[in-house]
Design brief:
Elements: H1 3-29, H2 34-39, H3 44-58, H4 67-84, H5 87-105, H6 110-125, H7 129-147, H8 152-167, H9 171-189
Length: 191
């Protein structure tokens, strides 16, 4: 095929991927009867989390042939589940996103480090501190090297590690991290 034909094929494939992603996202919200939710026993957060899990599990089956697009979608689904309070459900999506990014971008790529940090947060919120702490420590160390200690993502990673140490009852480890975060934020933002 000519260069022009290859470009058309790529655009068509990309358009198809975008359509499949949109279908996946829109399926989460299809048929939600907010009045029924308000009157029922299942909170809206639970309903949305259940639909996010279903969408995330179907994502690989939607023929999205760009692994990094799949990783981005799984990261967003996982992060949303964590923020809704469903960290245990988020772990499978964040693990898959981390695996894809490690394979495609490398273990020390900033996007891989960020997903590793979020996975550590999910482990911590799910009570799996033995998995969370080493992952949070490693991603923080590498983020400091890659982005510097005052970068917003590095500061968030310090806070995430502090929170995990706090959850583990290790206040002697959490306090210096919180103090470091405060000092660095003041350096960046002022008093």
């Amino acid at each position: 095929p000519s260069v022009r034909a290859k470009c058309r094929m790529r655009r068509a494939r990309r358009s198809s991927q975008i359509e499949k992603i949109n279908e996946t996202v829109l399926d989460i919200f299809t048929d939600i009867d907010i009045d029924a939710v308000k009157q029922g026993d299942e909170p809206l957060e639970q309903l949305l989390a259940s639909r996010l899990v279903t969408a995330g599990r179907e994502l690989d089956d939607k023929a999205i042939d760009d692994p990094l697009v799949v990783a981005d979608m799984k990261e967003r689904l996982g992060t949303t589940l964590v923020s809704l309070g469903f960290a245990k459900d988020a772990i499978e999506f964040l693990e898959r996103a981390q695996s894809i990014r490690e394979r495609k971008l490398g273990i020390e790529h900033v996007n891989t480090l960020l997903i590793s940090n979020m996975l550590g947060v999910a482990y911590a919120k799910a009570g799996e501190l033995e998995k969370a702490l080493p992952l949070l420590e490693e991603s923080l160390t590498l983020l400091k090297l890659k982005l510097g200690p005052k970068h917003p993502n590095t500061l968030a990673a310090i806070g995430n590690l502090a929170a995990a140490h706090h959850d583990a009852g290790e206040l002697d480890m959490a306090l210096p991290l919180l103090e470091e975060t405060l000092r660095l934020r003041r350096d960046v933002l002022g008093d």
